[in-house]
Amino acid sequence: MRADVIIIGAGAAGLMAAMTAGKRGRSVLVLDHAGKAGRKIRIAGGGRCNFTNINAGAGHYISANPHFCKSALAQFSPSDFIAVIEQHRIPYEERKEGQLFCVRSSADIIRMLEQECRDAGAVIHLGCTLHGVERRDAFAVTTSKGIFRSSSVIVATGGLSYPNIGASGLGHAIARRFGLAVTELHPALVPLVFSRKDQRIFGELAGISFPAAVSCKERTFRENILFTHKGLSGPAILQISSYWNRGDLLSIDLLPDVDTRAVLTARRQSRAILATLLSSSLPRRFAHTWCSLHGWERPMAAYSAKELDAIAQRLHAWELYPAGTEGYATAEVTRGGVDTDELSSKTMEARKVPGLYFAGEVVDVTGQLGGYNLQWAWSSGYAAGRSA
């Protein structure tokens, strides 16, 4: 079978590319090994699909080239995707910081994309395992359902995150096959794992959550942290994980909105122990574990001014060296991907392989938590589909 455009991957970027190319009158064939389209969309946002963020801009993305995403985001912005949502009368709601979610289910988004593809004449082949991609006069895509040929190929296979739903390094392998560089890959938006020592101390606090400010190098995120049996999770940890590398120090301000020195000084004559005092601002179990760890178990009146200074400083800068991450099994996205130096930021086409395009998570553009990664999928998929 022959088509003008073959798209490898029926996820967010692939379906957006398919409907966009189809509307241009291009014959489009989408291939995916999974039995259903949009599997990662289905689980996004806890099943409600945080489909975009109205604040999306280059500052919300990580890439070796921080300017690369600007062109695609300008071509297809959050308001453009919202317009499609509203055309299909899908109810949605805004949550914190510009995050938009489906009111009912992420299945609404998948049905919308599939309908848009059908209306544009794009054909989707599911359960189709890819064996190889070659290029002579045209591209030849060898699959379990035969050989398909086209003048253009868009690779929208995603990253390595969630291998349990079929994620793999296929897209990166295709890039390397055609001589394109792939940057170093890491799990991102992922829980962090304690060292053995810290796990022995804090492992019993699993389930405890409270707001904090988590910093790594020059980045700080203020949201909840969550203790797990293995380490730390929660929005602030997931956000900082995208910037953390093995060996980096985390600094956690446990009481970012509290003048801890003033609070401690005001209670300096109290007979209450420090953990009891801290329990008014922190979860009780954490406060007692924290104070026990540092040997701060005396009544408040027993501390000198210098000691209270040291306690306040430590509460605003808990220094922690994570042992690692939970890996791709629980990572929401993959940091790194096809090197942006290899691609046109306007069209997503490989500079040295005419007709070969990459879109979505497979590219070295990683969004922060909050709808930014799906917006990148829509924007980059649109840019590729508009040109392929």
Overview of the structural elements:
The chain is 30% helix and 23% strand. By secondary structure, the protein is of the alpha+beta class. The strands form five sheets. Strands 1, 2, 7, 8, 9, 10 and 20 form a seven-stranded mixed β-sheet that branches. The chain has a seven-stranded antiparallel β-sheet with strand order 17-16-13-14-15-12-18. A three-stranded antiparallel β-sheet has the order 3-6-5. Helix 1 packs parallel to helix 5 (107-119) and helix 9 (260-266) packs antiparallel against helix 12 (305-315). The mean pLDDT is 96.
Structural class: alpha+beta
Unreliable spans are none
Helical content band: 25-40%
Which percent band covers the strand fraction? 15-25%
Number of DSSP E strands: 21
Give the N-terminus to C-terminus distance in angstroms.
Answer: 18 Å
At a glance:
This protein is of the alpha+beta class and 388 residues long.
Overview features:
23% strand; 21 strands; 7-stranded antiparallel beta sheet; elongated; 388 residues; alpha+beta
Write the layout of secondary structure elements.
Elements: E1 2-8, H1 12-23, E2 28-31, H2 39-43, E3 50-53, E4 61-62, H3 70-75, H4 78-87, E5 92-94, E6 99-102, H5 107-119, E7 123-125, E8 130-135, E9 139-143, E10 146-155, H6 170-177, E11 186-188, E12 192-193, H7 196-202, E13 209-216, E14 219-227, E15 231-233, H8 235-241, E16 250-253, H9 260-266, H10 274-278, H11 284-294, H12 305-315, E17 318-320, E18 324-325, E19 333-335, E20 356-358, E21 366-367, H13 372-387
Parallel strand pairs: 1-2, 1-10, 2-7, 10-20
Antiparallel strand pairs: 3-6, 4-21, 5-6, 8-9, 9-10, 11-19, 12-15, 12-18, 13-14, 13-16, 14-15, 16-17
Helix pairs in contact: 1-5, 1-13, 9-12
